[in-house]
Amino acid sequence: MNNKHLACFVLMMFLVIELYAVFMMHSKASAMKQEAADGQAAAETATSDVNIKKAALNGLKVRTEPLVLFLNEWDPFLRQVSSAERGEQLIEALIKQAGVMCIDRRYSKGSATGLSYLPGTLSASLLLEDDYARTLQWLGDLESSLPASRVMTCTLSKGQNSNDVRMQLTVELPLVEAAVAAK
If we measure between CA atoms, which residue out of 13, 143, 136, 152 comes closest to residue 91? Predict the structure, then answer.
């Protein structure tokens, strides 16, 4: 082989290497273009999913707005009794403030079945005997002071004196625990 053949061979090898490099660069460029197209498609899909979810969220906000307003109105009253001790104190304060004679009182803490947002209840069984007007006024004060309370039973009967009434009452107060109240 002479110098011309060797030079042609080297030049040919150089061209083959150059063609191989161009081919590799072209395949990498086409792979990058494909990856960019896939990324663009994924971005468009994600954008449409976000828009669908935003529309669903807005629809949910519109549908639940009355419920949220209702909950916001009642939230301070529900948080008024954060523990059983606090509920007992409120009831005792109302009895003392009204000056109603309480013959018997029993408190028991229970659980609100099926209500995840309400961890428990305080049940107060009271036996009151006093003047008819004062006793019924006390019941009205109880319901206005603790609007989240629920009167489970209320039995009225004649008291010992002519104007007295005996009221056997069971009141249930929702308890919002301190951990839930801190939210």
Answer: 143
Helix, strand and coil content of the chain, in percent to the nearest 5, comes to 60, 25, 15
Report how far residue 15's alpha carbon sits from residue 9's, in angstroms, rounded to the nearest whole number: 10
Those residues whose C-beta lies under 8 Å from the C-beta of residue 156, and which sit 6 or more positions away, are 165, 166, 167
Residue 82 token pair: 């954060």
Distance (Å, whole) CA 132 – CA 156:
10
CA 94 to each of CA 21, 74, 98, 136, 173: distance values in angstroms, whole numbers, following the listed order? 91, 21, 6, 13, 14
To the nearest 10 degrees (0 to 180), the angle between helices 132-145 and 84-98 is: 140
What is the pLDDT, as a whole number, of residue 113?
63
**Measured in Å, how far apart are the chain's first and last C-alpha atoms?**
90
> CA-to-CA distance for 117 and 134, rounded, in angstroms?
36
- The pTM of the whole model exceeds 0.90: no
